[in-house]
Structures are given as structure tokens and as C-alpha cells.
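Per reviewer request, we include the raw input and output of the structure prediction for the construct analysed in the revised manuscript.
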Amino acid sequence: MKILCAGPTSIDEEVMKLMGKSLTNPDIDPEYEKIHRRVERKISKLLKTEATSFIMLGEGMIGLEAAICNLVEAGDRVLVLNNGVFGAGFADFVKFYDGVPQIYEDDFRRGFNIEKLKEFLAKDHDFKVATMVHCETPSGITNDVKSICNLLHSYGILTVVDTVSGMGGEDFDFDDYKVDIALGGSQKCISAPTGLTLVTISEDAKKAIANRKKPVPSYYMNFLNYYDYSDGFAFPYTMNENLTYALDLALDKLFEKDSIALHKKYAEVTRKIFEDAGFELYAKDSRANTLTAVMVPEGFIAEDILEALRKKGILISKGAGDIFEKVFRIGHMGNNISYENFLELFQKLDEVFKELGIKTKISLKKEFEELMKK
């Protein structure tokens, strides 16, 4: 089965082989710590920073909650920027830790309007923390993290950015963007196995955690246990050496190519093909380079297309939330990206659309071949 969905992505065979590599006991072997710290530095390199990065054992969602658990205390106001399914999810985490979420909502089919956000903040900027999603996977939108976080930083607001679906596929300069906590996952553009959260943290965020009124109400999620340990143990719990080795090689493979340019190229080609074929893209602007969300033609649901493609050996994604059956999504993301994969995808889509009676203005496969010659 070819995986061309919006994550988790397919995984390179060499990376998968490292899942079976067992060298040591990560709890007690100082040599393992050296390997682990090297991988953490590669995460920082990916975000163009010297800031501290560390790895949490757990899928990306644990990092989102952990960021709130560490920064938010009872009564703290948190600005939750929401223009997609995952943006609003931070509000639940804020409530779990007795914070006060203020949801700022914008058009779900567009990136955040910076001028509107400026107007809002001019009237109300008494927030300790602000949260946002870099790449809204369900809608195929990549928000302007640099403009948004620089604006929030000017008010002294700490910023938490979910870049699980952007890290490695979209440009991200941690220092220049004025981000305080960036959260990534191993299973998207990096194309390592699912199970690791990647955290990069600023000195301002570290100070905020150190100056809390009460201790962080968690052990597993307490960031201090990852970068300020003093009990003689390098990690707060037993790390998974196999996942770390796989992540290490996956990052090396990412650095071997111009990953940002590659994602951009396949995104632009995919968008053009669907628009020229007569489809409407869900995102009206700020379109993501890691996936494309396409509106399902009237009279059909996403499952019609997904089921037909599955029978031909290809997995793509539906939407999420209110657009669950209204869009289908193509993940031009990480190890999914290859000429052969996308040639087969567009060939099979031509067949599926013909079988379902969905009319297209062009052959998707032929246009892909032409565009890739340029």
C-alpha cells in the first residue's frame, strides 16, 4: 500500500531497520547519552537555532499538553489562536491546568490576518501565553509564524507553536520568529516512526517555568526534568533507543536534500494540477507545502474517493471536523515525496474520477509529467 496521506508518512527502509538495532541500556550507559544529545542538537539545527531541544517519549500530542502544563498556572490568561481544527484544542489543555483561555478565531480557509490580530491585541494583550498551529493539517494552511510571534513577542506574550506537520517541510527560524516553544513530531515531514515529540524551548520560556508560583503539576511532562536535571540521571524515564536511532538517521536523510524546496515544488505542482483539472482547493491563501486539501465535488463524499483509491493500493486522507467528508487531502510530505509515487497517484486518480463519474478538465497524470519536466 502506497502511503500518500497527511501523516504519518511512509518510512525509508534504512530508517525502519534501525528500529531493530539494540546497542545498550539507555538508563545507565553514558555513551547512549552522547548519541541522544547529538540527535537533540540536530533538532535545533533543523530550526536554525542554538536553543535547547529535547525529545519526549510520546506522540506529538503529549508535547502540546506539556507546553501548557509547564507555562500555565491557575488564573493565567492564554490567547488561543484558532483558524482550524487543531488550533482550538489548546483551550482544553489550558482549562485542565486552571488557566483562562481566550479563543481568537479567524477564517478557517485563510491564514491569520495580521492586521486584524494587531487591532485585537491593541485593545487586549494581557496574556501570559499565546498558542497557535503552524500548519493546520485538516485545511492545508500554513500560518505566518514569523509575523504572528514577533507581534506577540512585542507585548511580552510567550508563544507556543505546534509545528508537528510543518517541521522539516516548511521554513522555520526559531530565533528570528521569536518562538518560545516549538513542538514537532517524528512521524510527519521527518518520516521517522511515530512515538517521539520534539521540543525546542527559549530562555524566556525556561525563566517562566523556573519562576512559577507552584511546581509543574506533572513528572512525565515537566520540561525541567529534560534540561535541568540534577539527580544523576540523564533522562526522566527510560528512553527508547530504537526510536532515537531511527530519528537520527531520518534527520540525516532530511539534511542531505533541500527539504524545504522539495516540499514547495511538489506542493505547487499538486495545487496546479487540481486547479487546472477543475477542483477547488480548500485553502484560499497561505497554502501549506506539506499537504493539499481539495474540495470534494458536489454529490460525492470523501470516502467515495478514498475507498476507490484504497482498492488500487493508495492511501490518502479525508478532512477533519466539519469538513471530514468535504475534502480529501494529499500528503506531499517527507518520505512520501517521489516522482514514482506521485505519477502513480495521479494515474490512479484519473482512473478513480472516471469510474465515479467525476469530470476533470485534464488528465492529472499527463499534467504531472509535463510540469515535472519544467
